[in-house]
Amino acid sequence: MRTYDFSPLYRASVGFDRMADMLDRVLTQDVGGANGYPPYNIEKTADDAYRISVAVAGFTEDELSVEQREQGLVIAARKAKNEAERTYLHRGIATRAFEKRFHLADHVRVTGAVAENGMLHIDLVREVPEALKPRQIEIGSGRAKAIEAEQVEA
Prior knowledge:
Shape: elongated
Strand content: 25-35%
Number of helices: 2
Order of helices and strands: EHEEEEEEEH
Oligomer: single chain
CATH architecture: Sandwich
Structural class: alpha+beta
Helix content: 10-25%
Strand order of the largest sheet: 1-6-5-4
CATH topology: Immunoglobulin-like
Distance between the termini: 76 Å
């Protein structure tokens, strides 16, 4: 029997569990190591609040870009060209350009981004419109309706 690891389904989405959409996205994704850099965390900070933290050591705030497009969040970084090329004896800090994409659920929006201590923190919140929130419907009796009708006629 074959077992499937569904943990990749939770790596690129925030705020919802739509299995068919996620399966399609995972199955059409490149198999290479493109998703490994840079490392990131997704955490739930409240009932309707999330935070994505991306390790961006070596990048300044000017070299980072965070953009929300429709249902997606795009985080990108490009290192500014250095006029004087450096000669490295050992280069262990990767400062290569990257673009990381996250699919956001309906009504999830970015509320802010902060770069500190080599980490980029992006805060998100889910704001469900009042029209889509469940509402309590009052249940009346047929007797009350009959009394109201009699009063209107009188």
